[in-house]
Amino acid sequence: MPNTAKALGVTPHELKDPEVGIRTGVDCLRRFRQGFSKIEDPKERMKFTLASYNAGIGHVYDAQKLAEKYGKDPNKWDDNVAEYIRLKSDPLYYNDPVCKHGYLRGSETYNYVREVMERYKYYKDKTKA
Question: What's the confidence (pLDDT) of residue 100?
């Protein structure tokens, strides 16, 4: 995203260079991960980081606040915050006063996290063999 690149000191044109793009992506992931330092489980922290990379950290923070409001664990992804990421496409939820970042096609983020984690597991299992 152009705004994210700008915040990291990179122009959209510079992102066309694969080396710059990869370095910027890693920097972005590192910053997002720091935003979830209170989540002790590394696998959980990774899910929140991936969701932030896909949707923006503000939307993930909104989903955490919604989860907490509705009695779910704001530091657990599956069956907790993930459900509220999906619900951020519903006006009842994205207009909730705890949400500061509005509408999100949350099913895309939900699926992104699931698919990346499945791919990670696949490659991890393959490298054990």
Answer: 97
